[in-house]
Write a structure and sequence with these properties.
Bound molecules: adenosine-5'-diphosphate, magnesium ion
Largest sheet: 7 strands, mixed
Oligomer: single chain
Mean pLDDT: 95
Order of helices and strands: HEHEHEEEHHHEHEHHEHEEE
CATH class of the largest domain: Alpha Beta
Helix content: 25-40%
CATH superfamily of the largest domain: PurM-like C-terminal domain
Number of helices: 10
Distance between the termini: 41 Å
Length: 319
């Protein structure tokens, strides 16, 4: 099968909202009046971001999910994406499963594939996603204010737990491993929540490299620090009620795990009620984990009120 037959068969779908979709030199897109475009790219490299044994359907899902998560973090509605694929060979079964995982999530978010590039080479999947947000309403990293509450959506740490189990660093009961593995392989981007936080959240980021790292981006951009509650943090792992995770692993995974694709955001205490009802309307749990401080560091407070510095590093490809 040649390059063009491959594109036609696995990736071409009729254009929906695009003026021109897959098939011409460029896709053509007309943003709706009063909207700004939000654009982001994320690449998945075999051996770096996923294991060669991963189910291609999950890989298709995850490649788009990590991109949708960036749109969620800005409060943008997903609209369209471009897919650049480098493939070692044409494997029809693999392509069929990959495209099914990809399109299932794309359809669920009404986000259409409008173009891309296909080449032969080491397995590498790069997606550029485009969303729309009303002019001036994007939620940025730079808006956190001293005294703001800090929240995270959903659960943190389970994806890292699965990764450590894959690496043989710890052994997990089978049911915990399966749960953690699904968090690693099929993350759920929080787009509905992200959009509903417009006008409520002062600052937001998605948790892709670990809570401390991604919250750290908000703190740096906002010129502030944070105080986090250890009891609140240790309740965040989804698998936590099901087994006794060693405390050291629990904190390491929650604070610097990565691959969570949850949202971390700040909001004034006056918005608590509105936040709770926005989150419950979306069916997404949110947890209040601390507050923004003027002192530019991150400190952890335990149940006795003892304060310690937060020292878990976030993931850095070049560190
Ligand atoms: P060009 O040669 O102009 O770069 P290509 O021949 O690479 O264009 O691609 C032909 C058409 O197929 C273009 O519309 C391009 O956007 C689209 N396309 C290529 N690869 C993919 C892909 N993996 N997924 C979706 N569309 C793709
Ligand atoms: Mg090309």
């Amino acid at each position: 099968m040649g390059e063009f037959e491959l594109i036609e068969r696995f990736f071409k779908r009729p254009a929906r909202n695009a003026v021109v979709g897959v098939g011409d030199d460029c896709a053509i897109w007309a943003p709706q009046p009063g909207q700004q475009l939000a654009l982001s790219s994320d690449m998945l490299v075999e051996g770096r971001h996923f294991l060669s044994t991963v189910n291609p359907r999950h890989l298709g899902h995850k490649a788009l999910a990590v991109n949708l998560s960036d749109l969620a973090a800005c409060g943008a509605v997903p609209r369209a994406f471009l897919l650049s694929l480098s493939l070692p060979r044409v494997d029809e079964d693999w392509l069929s499963d990959f495209s099914q995982g990809l399109f299932a999530l794309a359809v669920a978010h009404d986000c259409e594939l409008i173009g891309g590039d296909t080449t032969q080479g080491p397995l590498n999947i790069s997606i550029t996603v485009m969303g729309e947000v009303p002019v001036g309403q994007a939620i940025l990293r730079s808006g956190a204010q001293v005294g703001d509450d800090i929240y995270v959506s959903g659960h943190l740490g389970d994806a890292r737990l699965a990764l450590e189990a894959f690496r043989g660093h710890l052994s997990l009961p089978q049911n915990i491993f399966e749960l953690a593995r699904s968090r690693l392989e099929s993350p759920t981007p929080r787009n509905t929540l992200g959009v509903s936080l417009r006008g409520l959240a002062h600052a937001m980021a998605d948790v892709s490299d670990g809570l401390l790292g991604d919250l750290g981006h908000i703190l740096k951009a906002s010129g502030a620090g944070a105080v986090l509650s250890l009891p609140a943090l240790s309740g965040l792992m989804m698998s936590r009620p099901l087994w006794t995770c060693p405390q050291e692993w629990l904190l390491r995974c929650v604070l610097s795990g990565g691959d969570d694709y949850e949202l971390v955001f700040t909001a004034p205490a006056s918005s608590r009620q509105a936040l709770e009802s926005a989150a419950s309307d979306c069916g997404t749990q949110i947890t209040h984990i601390g507050h923004i401080s003027a002192e530019p560091s991150v400190r952890l407070v335990d149940e006795k009120g003892t304060v310690q510095p937060a020292t878990y590093p976030s993931f850095d490809h070049f560190a």
